[in-house]
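ARCHIVE RECORD
Type: protein–small molecule complex
Small molecule: thiamine diphosphate
Source of inputs: curated submission
Record status: active
Notes field left blank by submitter.
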Amino acid sequence: MSTQISNDTLIDMHRRMVRIRLFEETAGKMMEDGKIPGALHLYVGEEAVAGGVMVHLSDEDQITSTHRGHGHLIAKGGEFDQMFAELYGRSTGYCKGKGGSMHISNMELGILGANGIVGGGPPIAMGAAFGNKFLKNNKVAVCFFGDGASNEGSFHEAANMAGLYKLPVVFVCENNGFGEYTPQANHQAIVDVADRAAGYGMPGVIVDGMDAVAVYEAAGEAVDRARSGKGPTLLECKTYRFFDHVGVRGMGLTYRSDEEVERWKKRDPILLMEERLLEQKVLSAEQIKAVHDITSEEVLAGIKFAEESPFPDPSSLTEDVYA
Amino acid sequence: MAEAQLKPRTLPYVSAITEGVRAVMLEQPTAFVAGEDVAGAGGVYGYYAGILDEFGPERVYDTPISEEGIVGLGVGSAAAGCRPIIDMMFMDFLGECMDEVANQMAKMRYMFGGRTKLPITMLTMAGAGMSLAAQHSQSLEAWICHLPGLKVVMPTTPYDAKGLIIAAARDDNPVIVVLNKMSLAIKGEVPEESYEIPLGKANIVRPGTNYTIVAMGRMMHEAIKAADELAKLGVDAEIIDPRTLQPFDTDTVVESVRKTHRALIVHEAVRFGGFGGEIVAQIQEEAFDYLDAPIARVGAPFSPVPFSPALEKLYIPNADNIVAAAKKQLGL
Ligand SMILES: Cc1ncc(C[n+]2csc(CCOP(=O)(O)OP(=O)(O)O)c2C)c(N)n1
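STRUCTURE (tokenized, with ligand):
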């Protein structure tokens, strides 16, 4: 199967993943240095999911993101300048400094919000898919959500309606094994969130969420299925977050062992992708390094842009409450 | 309860919450704690620290991220004879469970002819100030004060936090304890023993003669700063912390206004439609003839809570806003 994937697609996915990684590492550092206010939920370790799914979507297709949303936005084309500016609370940010990390999004890229409410996304994605079907516009909506979010009633209602109305939506579960500090085994009695698909009359598919190519293939089928009117899919990607729930080091709680983290890091999605790129001679080591270098420069430029940008004007406080 | 027997120590608000929960767990064998990350992690703000270790997994539960389920766990188990303490990590998440709160928990006793008791204590965290943006910073007490069947308390000091939690848990009704995240580090004296702050009893935090400030929640601390400023202008402000919003201690407020003839109400919540409006109405109903000026109100502007610190600091009412409103009201 993987023979079908073009070199260009591999390069594209790799680039999106590296962009996420380097953005997040710096954002985390800036938060812990006190330069970025509030709470950042970082996507490091989970890049293959956003990367593997998003290459199937155009700017017209919608996604709903989560509190861990920077990666989704970057993979869908988010610009570092406006992203960092948003995290810094500046007026030049995507949300004019009003949203911050938990609400960072760009509607023009079809992103119907990062969301501070766990389980906030599924009903909105379902609704977007309903709208797409209603308008016959051939767009697909993709809902990213965590294993933790799969326990919200909102997920159940949205998935049921999506299955019932055969909506063009893909539910992508980013199962990183934890909801905050609670391991999956302590928050649900199942191991595979995909098992729930049967209850909604949709296929449930499980993939290795550290392998972007595996995600790419499964997501491709699910997106095609949605676009061709066959209805939703629940795609579960088994993944892991390398950083803490909030920030890099977080609160220093011992809810998972260092060995476990190290074991998953051996399957770092970017390393796996780069091994493949080298092995298949898609990119050379120098070319890979160049991707990192260019991205690092963009990160620095983004930080500079943010730090030089003004804070929102006081007059904007009550703007944009209504249309 | 003789005051002299109590041994006060200085504790931060966060630890006073823990002590309140612990006291309830010790004195009530059917009490248990349930909520997201309350057990292993001790709560995201740490106020359940040590509770799991002391009381064990039979009485302290990490729940799934299922707010409607959590409140249902409280309602059903209370109806079955337990005295649950349930945690709603952020008050904003009332949105996920409002049916259980508004249509079930608040109404069950009345609808069923008073044949059940629902001794549920819900702890929840409100307030802005940490750049947590629109969905993690709200003060939504007006939502729940509007629901007959619920009691609502808003502790402002460490002393009140412990005492109100204990009182809430001893009460046979559902009580929502609205905590404030910017108050977690505020220190104050807290007795070691278990004690109760009576529900429905306001606290005159600072006596005064010619001006009444009713300050809810964390705004009490801002009101104290404002009162210092106002004193320089000859305004001797009496500050009242209602502590309980439902049932509301109208008498204490009205008595003060009858003495001072002027009043200002301040809360962190959005001013429009906020609980302050209710207090204003109560004062004018009971003390209209005593008023020398229209009652002033200070609250947040009519917008969601902004993320950017530059805007958030303008959004949250503070001592300056209180002073400005008072000066305008008094023509100073
Ligand atoms: C309705 C709601 N409940 C609780 C929270 C607090 N919270 C933020 S992130 C999180 C864990 C989410 O877990 P999961 O969905 O698995 O996503 P992950 O963080 O692992 O990416 C929780 C409980 C919230 N933001 N919204």
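CURATOR ANNOTATION: Residues 116 and 138 of chain B are 32 Å apart (CA to CA).
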